[in-house]
Design goal:
heterodimer, A: 373 residues, alpha/beta, 6-stranded mixed sheet, 8 helices, B: 288 residues, mainly alpha, 12 helices, disordered N terminus
């Protein structure tokens, strides 16, 4: 409160604000962010909670003033940050459309013309004359969104509200956002839904604790975002067991640790053994980080393969073929047991990365063919 | 062929720290233009709040009548039973108190509703960008509405006490216009400071109660005792009150000095209040 009073008194006295430097107890919510946005472009803004996305949107909207730097905007900025702004629960939907529209800067004549379109979009004809307090939360959001969309701003700022509403409504929203883009509206989209961001944005900015990195390739940005959520410890090589009294495995050869989807992972295990092991069981598994999300696990029996480890110095080669993963940092676990699992001979977990492919999200990558007759 | 893109608004907005300058006539022109642009919103918010106020209530709009009527009733009784010595007023006492109450409530309710207008719209301020004066002006607009609907009740009271006002009573609404400037100016200041330091709103209730007794609403304007004399006349509301009484009962202003003082101070408070509000308003979203 004290800083608030100081700033305000300085403002009144027309002195430069002290807010440009950090005072004790303050931190930069957004720092050194710089970007351009042209007409008709869509910019995705992603980042963990508390990274400064909403703050940045508020600055673009003119609600918060930057303490350093400047923002230059051409045209009207409309925001879908607060859906149903100005709605009064006692008033009917019809009256609230006019209130909300007025707050968003629409004139009464404009609202009169667009009223039917708005009600159509929201899909609440029967309830337009009941007080808004009786609406379900979905209806409330749809009405608010309908009004905001018809405001036709030059720059549309969307803050994580597309998460509400059923799929039918969401597809309507994307349709109309696409149309707005055609018309030259620029869009800044904040979302935690990576699929939405990937399919809709031309570029992506990743915010982390106020600092920004811009990615021209959206898939890279999304991957960096997922990386932020991984614990660093998870990505170490775990060498749980490299042998016992009878057998010793030496450093395995792992030709690559970074793959494109559908490539094969191979590991060559040289060993030296005093006895021969017949019919060993070899476990191969692919886990997500922190051992959650098991993508694949199989022993050699699944492939009806019989493996013997002869005595002496030999190598055991294992290859996992055509792995259809993408955009994932995983661990490949390889374990070798003696027959009937009487003894553990080898168990390592190897961190491996699968790169991302543009225009494909999700963790699995499958081949799709297309044909037109 | 024209593409839809050319319909767009090409106004350029620049946001920078310390971008609002303190001086110059352009600053004032911008402020006025901004408000004119948002006049529909002001009207729409007023309509919203007034219609919402009395929904789902039986007596509805009659509640606006009750407060001044009640005070009037109590003080008429106090005077008649000689509980407090109240001098003779230029109008019949019930009418005097009622007119006083109408003017006073315009002031006090205008200020208290302004004080809370920004705080109650907290979520709106944090999410949508619009000139915040709109909220205060629409709050004060509601009190103007209350004032107007009490006029029929005033007419009934005139009939009841058998008093016919002079024709100059029709000028009274004109006098209320500079009064509104005073209220808006003070309202803007109180609203914005209350948003940052909540004590202001709490202090306001106390100050207004005290002020009601420092204004000639319940008693005729003092002519003798020096202290109350000065308290009354420094309070610019008195100037308007006296003008209202005089125009109703006498036909001309008996104390033009007080009225001129009230006019000038209203204008001054309005200008200072609005300017300060405008300078601070962009910080509000952070501090509310």
């Amino acid at each position: 409160m004290l800083y608030g009073i100081q700033d305000i008194l300085k403002n009144i006295a027309d002195r430069p604000s002290a807010a440009a430097d950090l005072r004790p107890g303050e931190f930069w919510a957004v720092q050194d962010v710089s970007f351009d946005l042209q007409r008709g472009e869509a910019l995705g803004l992603i980042g963990p909670n508390g990274s400064g996305k909403s703050t940045l949107l508020k600055m673009l909207n003119g609600i918060l003033m930057p303490d350093r730097g400047s923002i230059r905007i051409r045209g009207r900025a409309g925001s879908l940050i607060e859906v149903g702004a100005g709605f009064h629960p006692m008033l009917t939907g019809r009256e609230n459309v006019y209130v909300n529209g007025a707050i968003l800067g629409m004139k009464k004549s404009e609202l009169n013309k667009k009223f039917d379109e708005i009600v159509d979009f929201a899909g609440i004809h029967e309830f337009i004359d009941t007080p808004v307090k009786h609406y379900s939360s979905g209806m409330y959001v749809r009405l608010g969104f309908a009004v905001a969309i018809h405001c036709m701003p030059d720059i549309l700022l969307i803050d994580e509200i597309l998460a509400v509403g059923d799929e039918g409504f969401q597809s309507k929203c994307f349709n109309i956002m696409g149309q707005l883009r055609e018309n030259g509206t620029s869009i800044v989209l904040v979302s935690h839904n990576m699929h939405t961001v990937s399919t809709f944005s031309d570029r992506v900015i990743l915010l982390d604790k106020g600092k920004a990195t811009e990615f021209k390739n959206v898939a890279d940005g999304v991957k960096e975002y997922s990386k932020l959520f991984q614990s660093k410890k998870g990505m170490d090589m775990e060498k749980i067991c490299s042998g016992n009294d009878a057998i010793r495995f030496f450093d395995p050869e792992i030709p690559r640790k970074s793959f494109a989807p559908r490539e094969s992972f191979s590991i060559t295990l040289p060993y030296e053994s005093l006895i021969a092991y017949q019919n060993v069981e070899i476990d191969t598994a692919i886990f997500g980080d922190t051992m959650q999300g098991l993508y694949f696990q199989a022993t050699n029996e699944a492939f009806q393969q019989h493996v013997d480890l002869p005595r002496g110095r030999h190598t055991l080669a294992i290859s996992i073929q055509n792995i259809p993963l993408t955009n994932a940092s995983v661990k490949v676990a390889v374990a070798v047991w003696a027959e009937k699992r009487t003894s553990l001979l080898f168990w390592w977990r190897i961190p491996v990365e699968f790169c991302s492919v543009a225009h494909a999200t999700g963790k699995n990558f499958l081949m799709v063919t297309y044909g037109v007759d | 062929m024209q593409t839809p893109v050319t319909e767009q608004n090409d106004r350029i907005q620049i946001y920078k720290p310390n971008s609002i300058r303190n001086t110059g006539i352009h600053a004032w022109i911008d402020m006025v233009c901004e408000l004119i642009e948002y006049r529909e919103l002001i009207w729409r918010l007023m309509v919203r709040d007034i219609s919402a106020r009395y929904r789902q209530s039986v007596l509805g709009i009659f509640w606006s009548f009750l407060a001044p009527l009640f005070i009037m009733g109590i003080f008429v009784m106090v005077k008649n039973k000689q509980i407090l010595p109240i001098g003779n007023t230029v109008l019949p006492y019930p009418a005097y108190v009622f007119i006083g109450q109408m003017v006073w409530l315009l002031f006090s309710q205008g200020l208290t509703s302004s004080a809370h207008s920004l705080i109650s719209s907290g979520s709106l301020l944090a999410k949508i960008n619009f000139p915040k004066e709109v909220l205060i002006i629409s709050a004060i607009g509601q009190t103007v509405f209350d004032f107007i609907i009490r006029i029929p009740l005033l007419i009934i009271i005139f009939l009841w006490v058998g008093f016919t006002p002079k024709l100059t009573i029709l000028i009274v609404p004109l006098i209320m216009i500079p009064f509104l400037f005073l209220i808006v100016g003070l309202g803007l200041l109180i609203a914005i400071f209350n948003a940052i330091i909540r004590d202001v709103g709490n202090a306001l209730t106390i100050v207004l109660t005290a002020l009601m007794f420092a204004s000639p609403i319940l008693y005729p304007p003092p002519t003798t005792w020096p202290l109350t004399f000065w308290i009354n006349y420094i309070n610019p509301v008195s100037g308007f009150l006296l003008a209202a009484y005089d125009l109703t009962a006498v036909g001309f202003l008996t104390n033009s000095g007080a009225f001129v003082y009230a006019l000038i101070s209203s204008f001054f408070v309005f200008c200072v209040g609005w300017r300060i509000f405008h300078l601070i308003e962009h910080k509000i979203a952070e501090r509310i």
